[in-house]
Structures are given as structure tokens and as C-alpha cells.
Amino acid sequence: MNFDKEFDASGLSCPLPILKTKKALSDMASGQVLKLVATDCGAVKDMQAFADQTGNSLLGMEEASGSYTFYMKKK
């Protein structure tokens, strides 16, 4: 998937991946896509909840070897 900005939150635990995602999105234009990599398993439900609450779109999620990759489109 194409993305405009990438952020690696590997090794960070809740709530830091969400807080860092919010900050990363604030520097982006509407319609741009953020790629986020996290290792906290709680990020799976947290990212969906964050997207629902903020109106940003969670375009997809992939899991591989304990790492979770999310693609979020800024509203």
C-alpha cells in the first residue's frame, strides 16, 4: 500500500503508539496515509478505536512475527 509518512512505534506500549500516531497525523494533510508499525498487541483494538473516535480511516492492518502494521488515512 502506498503511504506518505511512516512511523515506527516498535517497543512502545499503550498509550504511546496512539499519542505518537495523533502527533504524526497532525503534521499531515487531509487524505494522506500514515504507515505505523507497532509491537504492542493492544494496538490492534486501540488503532481501530482511535480511527472511530477521530474520523480518520483505518485502511488496513497486517501482522507478521509479532509486529503490526497499520495504514491510516487522515480525514
From TrEMBL:
Organism whose genome encodes this protein: Candidatus Gallionella acididurans
PANTHER family: SULFUR CARRIER PROTEIN YEDF-RELATED (PTHR33279:SF6)
UPF0033 domain sequence ranges: 5-74
Family classification: Belongs to the sulfur carrier protein TusA family.
Transmembrane parts of this sequence: none
Cross-referenced InterPro entries: TusA-like, TusA-like_sf
Recorded superkingdom: Bacteria
Protein name stated in the entry: SirA family protein
Pfam families linked to this entry: TusA
Record-linked CDD domains: SirA_YedF_YeeD
